[in-house]
Amino acid sequence: MHHCLLKILCIFSISKRNCVNICSNKKSPKSVIYQGVPKLLHKTVCDKRRKSEVISCIFSLKEEVGALARALRLFEEKGITLTHIESRPSQANKDHYEFFISVDSTSSQALDEVINSLRTQISGHVHELSRNKQKDTVPWFPNDIPDLDRFANQILSYGSELDADHPGFTDPVYRARRKEFADIAYNYRHGQTIPRMEYTEDEKATWGTVFKELKSLYPTHACREHNRVFPLLEKYCGYRPDNIPQLEDVSRFLQSCTGFRLRPVAGLLSSRDFLAGLAFRVFHSTQYIRHSSKPTYTPEPDICHELLGHVPLFADPSFAQFSQEIGLATLGAPDEYVEKLATVYWFTVEFGLCKQGSEIKAYGAGLLSSFGELQYCLTDKPKLQPFDPDKTSLQKYPITEYQPVYFVAESFEDAQEKVRKFAATIPRPFTVRYNPYTQSIDVLDNTQQLRSLADSISSTYQLMLAVL
């Protein structure tokens, strides 16, 4: 059913055997509450058909005769017109039902009063759906891949502006160059071709220094997945000491391998926004390079870090899936859990070690793009601990010096399963999965959706049996 704006036709009493959706057509929607909800998770979003704005929330009521009627009367008393309402049995409390409602944005102030009344007069549990960091709200998250355009330019630091301690701060040529890269990122929109850059001889020399030093260490220090992909990048993407690869070429290569793609970004994003991109198999990549005065040091991610550290692993199916699992786990999660997942990301995707046979190898991009730390991490100086998301997520870490602690994964598959179990502990009123056909997020929250998912799994299973 298309999720258009709907009028409430009646006020009704609720019983466990007669919980229905109020809608303009009698057919059950494919999703009872959350299908389409991510598009409504903005505090206000524009409906394409009516060009109006809506605000949404979810509230739960105890199962008893007249409960919903009393709740809806609160909306009526405040003169609020409900444009959409859906229902489902509560997953948290067996004797409760949950209701998703939308109202016109002009009712914003009145809705706040109703929400307070729901909590105080009816003892209802209410979740407002919002990007704003307010108590009891479900944080906004992108519903489909073009939604990444909404936050891609909300960088936290650097971009074209540099701190006083940045190596390029006093270099006007470098600062002007950084502005060129920032402008490209700011103007980029999903679906466009990433503009090709003509790198200067100075920039290529900096790349060459980093490239040659790191390549000499990869055979002995990098994981086998990195070493398997790196020659392919040299062959198909122009990885050479005298050439800085173009993001568009690398992005197309990744898409052909695992469906991952690159998107230019001007600087550092928030943890929530950056990890949300991974949920769509999108990696926000810088296009600029570190200052030539310090080719072995950078205070921020640059194209050396992205292309030499991250890209080879994103071309590996197991690692790509693992990275996406972390991203999916952050969607709609409370801030404190996003912080924990960001720490897990730091100690895996950025600074992770893994067992391969009788040896330990590096797979984190922060290691694979740092000549010094790549050597250091495999010595007896740092402390190595087994990867456990519950413990890893609480580990403090420095950002301007080598890590004193690294976490060792048994394998990417094992790490992925552990992250999946960790994600199951996140208090969200729904579960999400990525739909690669529509490049959007499916929010799983009812038996009908689970049945559809089971049918999809069954179809895949039948194909496996046919092969066997």
Automatic annotation (TrEMBL):
InterPro entries registered for this protein in UniProt: ACT-like_dom_sf, ACT_dom, ArAA_hydroxylase, ArAA_hydroxylase_Fe/CU_BS, ArAA_hydroxylase_sf, Aro-AA_hydroxylase_C_sf, Aromatic-AA_hydroxylase_C, Euk_PheOH_cat
Catalytic activity: (6R)-L-erythro-5,6,7,8-tetrahydrobiopterin + L-phenylalanine + O2 = (4aS,6R)-4a-hydroxy-L-erythro-5,6,7,8-tetrahydrobiopterin + L-tyrosine
Cofactor or coenzyme needed: Fe(2+)
Pathway: Amino-acid degradation; L-phenylalanine degradation; acetoacetate and fumarate from L-phenylalanine: step 1/6
UniProt lineage: Eukaryota, Metazoa, Chordata, Craniata, Vertebrata
A Gene Ontology BP annotation from the UniProt entry: L-phenylalanine catabolic process
Keyword set, alphabetical order: Allosteric enzyme, Iron, Metal-binding, Monooxygenase, Oxidoreductase, Phenylalanine catabolism, Phosphoprotein
Occurrences of domain ACT (ranges): 56-134
Class of enzymatic activity (EC top level): oxidoreductase
Molecular function terms, GO-annotated: iron ion binding; phenylalanine 4-monooxygenase activity
Residues in the signal sequence: none
EC number(s) on file: 1.14.16.1
Function statement: Catalyzes the hydroxylation of L-phenylalanine to L-tyrosine.
Binding positions (Fe cation): 305, 310, 350
Protein name: Phenylalanine-4-hydroxylase
